[in-house]
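Class prep. Write one:
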Amino acid sequence: MIWSHLIGQKLLKKQMEYLLFSNQVPHAQLFSGLPGYGALPLAIEFSLGLLGCERNEVEHESLSKLCQNPDLHFMIPVVKKIGEKTAFSDDYSKEWLCFLDENPYGNYSAWFESISVGNKQGIIGIDDVKKVHKKMFLKSYAGQRKACIVWGADKMNPQAANAFLKLLEEPPKGTFFFLIVEDTEMVLPTIFSRCQHIPLLRIDDESLKDSIKDKKIDHKEIVSRADGDYNRMNNLLNEDNNMKYEKLIVEGLRLAFKAKGSQKIVGDLINWSDNLSSLGREDQKEFLAYSIQFFRDAFLINYKLDSLIHFRSSVGFDIHKLAPYIHPGNILELIDLFEKNHFYIIRNASSKMIFSNLSLKLALLINVRKD
């Protein structure tokens, strides 16, 4: 097989090739893991091999071109367009093909940003599942197999998940489904049980290093901080997002420190929480995840474990000055606060309530004295 768009994952490639060449490919597979590990390009490359797509090993064809195979279908989380009663993946085919070329390792946040969803929550709805159901029962163009890649199966709403379950229970002959998720706990258990689960592990450092085009960059430091995640490595190479999240958490911390006994500052802290609630859902999740790592790094500095720290400031913030205030007396509660609110955001709770509560608790926790 040709794996021209998949970085690393040598062992997994061999396992997938064995399934294909031994004719033991399950009708449903579920790939889980961070987007930066490569589940999407893996599923695409494998689907193309399964469909017998003829490719020139020398020529590097774009994913958008390869994915126009008529027997390869996609379901992706989308939002309704203006004036539309429902949303279909096919409505975004042009944007999706561009996304595959520009950011095949991208996460939901990057996808939703590319289609400008704003505060809306992208989902896979029941009408989209019904449409794919009809497609999969049609005769394949090549007369053999059909494949459907469900990118964001954890974004199906309950009605869509139940409808999709019926399709998995009685799949048309010669059809294969490849589900891709970030969080397996968000997948309907009955769907999960009908799939072969393949968790993706981190990409090896050597493969990540080879993927960096600018050879003048300090490969060792960037690759080490990326921790096997191609997406994170690209973010490190382009610090714009990290800078935004760093500015937000630093601003919040400064207000939280001053909020004790100052009604005016509490008002400023609430305004800060309002800014967070105005972000898109995926942006909010990214901010909370960034903050969790931020607090962990600050805590590790107290134990002189700088080699384990990922944080590199983009705005000149000295995390060593923060470290004494992140200690055994508050670190667990801080992490728990941000992790719980990350969970609530995933569950579509009110972001205004979430972040106003977070800001007030942050003010209490950051002012807890070290014993």
About this structure: DSSP finds 17 helices and five strands in the chain. The domain at 10-201 is CATH 3.40.50.300 (Rossmann fold). The longest helix spans residues 281-301.
